[in-house]
Amino acid sequence: MGFHSKPTTFVGHVKIKVENLERSLKFYQEVIGFDVLEQTDSMAKLTTDGKTSILSLVQPINAIPKQGRTTGLYHFAILLPERSDLANIVVHFVNKGIRFGSSDHLVSEALYLDDPDGNGIEIYIDRDPSEWSWHGEEVAMTVDPLDFENLLTTVSPGKSWLGMPEGTVMGHIHLHVSELKKTEEFYVKGLGFDVVNRYGTQALFLSTGKYHHHIGVNTWNGAGAPAPADNSVGLESFILILPNEEARNRCVSNLKQIGANVTEENNTFITYDPSGNRIVLAL
């Protein structure tokens, strides 16, 4: 549908910090269904197609458990290609005794769970965009119960869960932030996103290309929430894929105009949102 390919700006990769890499790898391979693309003693790049990585795990030196009431990762969201894939992973979770939550967001159907460190994960499937309801510039989203009876009619008969299917992408990322005003300015004026939904006064959903959201931000951990320690479990960074070098240069210029810091390291541009969430600007 073009929401996760150029010329749309989208989240291409998320890197998270974990306390114990071996424990996390076991979870992400056996429960979620990723394969390992590359691995060292302290880092692993995970893949669904054997060629590209959409998720990396890193174990910091002297890693400490996730800190509550801080900014950072709320969840990253894995987008599956087909509705039957979501049904199949539901059966897989039930068979393995995995506890998970669920929701129907009108634009999508989603499952929710945490990894062994408490990093939030969403696994979802989009409804066809023709079914999304737009009111001006805002798309209607809600938190309704998921209709499992209907979803499970799409289970592939006689086919067990064989891992994340090829064509799986990083659908979006949702962040805890300390406030919304400067955050909105950063993502809209700086990075060129559009606000597509305001969830009360405590959350914003942003996208490009009329997607329901590539980025969500909320203050549910409290206004003024501090950033976690560098060695804390949670978000290390995420990569935004920009359409071309001109678009990236424009973002860098716009970010500097609003006072955001942008650094360049070996032709890699890195910035931080007002709550300290680290973003890599890539092509």
From TrEMBL:
Statement: the UniProt record of this protein carries the keyword Kinase: no
Enzyme Commission (EC) number: 1.13.11.2
Keywords, sorted A to Z: Metal-binding, Oxidoreductase
InterPro entries for this protein: Glyas_Bleomycin-R_OHBP_Dase, Glyas_Fos-R_dOase_dom, Glyoxalase_1_CS, VOC_core
Domain of life of the organism encoding this protein: Bacteria
Pfam family, one: Glyoxalase
Domain VOC: 10-126, 169-283
GO molecular function terms noted in the UniProt entry: catechol 2,3-dioxygenase activity; lactoylglutathione lyase activity; metal ion binding
Protein name listed in UniProt: Catechol-2,3-dioxygenase
Source species of the chain: Pseudoneobacillus rhizosphaerae
